[in-house]
Amino acid sequence: MKKDDIRRNIKARKTLLSEEEKMAAAEQVFNLLEQTAEFMLSDRILMYHSLPDELSTRAFIRKWCGRKHFYLPRVNGVNLEILPYDESRLSLGSFHIEEPTGTDTSSVDDMEMIVVPAVAYDRSGNRVGRGKGYYDRLLAGSRARKVGVAYDFQLVDEIEADPHDVQVDVVITQNNHIVIRKFRH
To answer: Per 3-state DSSP, what percentage of the chain is helix, strand, and coil (rounded to 5)?
Structure first.
């Protein structure tokens, strides 16, 4: 299936979810993430601030922000910058996503784990994003552990990967914990 077809199918599936189903799915997925060695051993974690149609990261960030150092991306032209998470320093940025403000950017090389958003993943770690390539550019060359989180139906049979596409190392859905590459700390 082509990436545009996957995007269309997943978007249609997401519209069928109730608020209760969205909250329950996020809780299940992030409970699984919390139990992984990757999460337990990581202190500096790049998250994403979820859009309404994405698996919500907000409760998870609030739960752990006192014990882990979270960072969020901010769009700068065609690239993403990384800034520390501070709930009091968020503003609506590109694509109507709450982004961190300030000038204290960090390097992707400082991140130990990156929770990567996507429209869909496959069991080989390939992903379909929203089509702008922001995360592929950010993740290229990063040695951080890359973890994809998603609803069960966002796990598809196969995604055709382009040469510039960056795979994730782990995919976690409500009922799946797929390790593509082992973690080396």
So the answer is: 30, 25, 45
SS3 call for 54 = coil
Mean pLDDT of the chain: 90
Q: Provide DSSP, 114-171.
A: EEE--SEE-TTS-EE-SSS-HHHHHHTT--SEEEEE--GGGB-S--PPPTT----SEE
The first and second tokens of residue 69, run together, are 């150092």
Query: What pLDDT band is residue 30 in, cutting at 50, 70 and 90?
Result: very high
Which structure tokens are listed for 61?
């960030």
Other CB atoms within 10 A of residue 140 CB: 12
pLDDT value for 184: 59
92 pLDDT band (50/70/90 cuts)? confident
CA–CA–CA angle 88, 89, 90 (5° rounding): 105
Amino acid present at 129: G
**pTM of the predicted model, to two decimals?**
0.92
Neighbours of 101 (CB within 10 A): 13
Q: What stretch of H or E contains 90?
A: strand 90-92
